[in-house]
Design a protein that fits this description.
Oligomer: heterodimer
Shape of chain A: flat
Structural class of chain B: mainly alpha
Largest sheet of chain A: none
Structural class of chain A: mainly alpha
Shape of chain B: globular
Strand content of chain A: under 5%
Largest sheet of chain B: none
Order of helices and strands of chain A: HHHHHHHH
Number of domains of chain A: 2
Number of strands of chain B: 0
Number of strands of chain A: 0
Radius of gyration of chain B: 18 Å
Number of helices of chain A: 8
Helix content of chain A: over 70%
Distance between the termini of chain A: 55 Å
Strand content of chain B: under 5%
Chain lengths: 182, 175
């Protein structure tokens, strides 16, 4: 029980102090799990991250579930996930309350008029950053452009695009592996 | 109660297909919240992204909490957030056992790597719809240009960049 509470507190701290979420959390998680508490070796941790990153969902929560299950079984997943999401949950409700109360004030409206274009650019920069780590093969470029067009211009549901890209990926990759085996 | 359950499962759907983390979830949220269910406008959606960026925690959790809270108060926030996480319990625990078993099967290795080009498309389409509603006059073009310089030419943290753009917006648009 004491270990579970400690595990909960580790993820609580991680949830409360990482801005931008996702990958920014991993070094913090590693320090807590591997260096401080020695719950597993660095190699085990890297293996687990490789797995959780491939799963859909929130990386912090996935890592909490996988580590929790691995270390403490079912209750580990529950304590880990609650720790990871509780800070955002509470802070966001407070932020929402403030925002909804003051959103009609002319000053706040002016500030958000300035923030909105900046958000569009920040999001675009994430696409640019990701494109830098993806190989520029014809296949990859076509997938990126077609996914964009299907969602933006044909209004296709993003879930359909994701599933389609995944199936196509398995098909194409499976075929190229068969060829190289021949 | 029915509305809460609907909210729960809508976020479960989003959580189950949120590959690539972070911004890749935005087109899913926009599709479900703005277009399909009409639970928020595009402006609300951008403001939500802004709030998520200046508060700690993953953007997906922040979004689920914010949207749930706005629609149905604290219970809405709880249903939305738990709904988002719900599929991960099954997927991750199942995957934990499956992957240890099929470790060397290469296509299992990382479905996500195959999806990265699609995620680029997803994020770009979020950029387009947010840009279309927020970059509407000369002042917003200037702010977007300033942000682009700060994002691509400096190492400033996104939170700082958002605060700067908010201050500029205050000067440009107030009064």
């Amino acid at each position: 029980m004491r270990k579970l509470i400690k595990f909960f507190l580790v993820f609580l701290r991680i949830g409360a102090f990482t801005f931008g979420g996702g990958l920014a959390m991993l070094p913090l998680i590693e320090r807590e799990i591997v260096d401080k508490n020695e719950w597993m070796t660095k190699e085990e941790f890297i293996d687990i991250i490789a797995v959780t990153q491939c799963m859909p969902g929130v990386i912090a929560a996935n890592t909490a579930i996988y580590l929790g299950y691995h270390l403490f079984g079912f209750w580990g997943t529950v304590f880990g996930v609650l720790g990871a999401i509780l800070p955002s949950f509470v802070i966001m409700m407070v932020a929402a309350e403030f925002f909804l109360t003051f959103r009609d004030s002319p000053v706040i409206q002016a500030v958000f008029m300035g923030i909105r274009p900046a958000i569009a650019v920040l999001i675009f920069s994430a696409a640019v950053r990701l494109s830098k780590v993806v190989d520029k093969t014809a296949y990859n470029i076509v997938i990126a452009v077609v996914s964009f067009a299907l969602i933006s211009f044909w209004g296709l549901h993003p879930i359909i695009v994701i599933v389609g890209a995944a199936l196509l990926g398995i098909l194409v990759k499976g075929r190229s592996e068969n060829e190289s085996a021949d | 109660m029915r509305a809460l359950i609907e909210l729960f499962f809508t976020f479960s759907k989003i959580g189950a297909f949120n590959f690539g983390g972070g911004y890749a979830i935005l087109p899913l949220i926009e599709k479900e919240m703005v277009i399909n269910n009409g639970w928020m406008t595009t402006h609300d959606f951008i403001d939500l992204v802004a709030l998520s960026q200046v508060t700690p925690g993953p953007i997906s959790i922040n979004s689920a909490t914010f949207i749930g809270y706005r629609l149905f108060g604290i219970s809405g926030a709880a249903y939305g957030t738990l709904g988002l996480i719900f599929p991960a319990f099954f997927i991750v625990i199942f995957a934990a056992t499956a992957i240890q078993k099929y470790r060397n099967s290469s296509w299992m290795n990382c479905a996500f790597l195959n999806l990265r080009p699609a995620v680029i498309g997803l994020i770009t389409s979020a950029t387009l719809s947010l840009g279309r509603t927020s970059i509407v006059d000369l002042r917003s073009v200037l702010i977007a240009g300033l942000t682009a310089v700060l994002v691509f030419k400096t190492k400033l943290h996104p939170v700082v960049i958002i605060l700067i753009s908010g201050a500029v917006g205050g000067v440009f648009y107030f009064g």
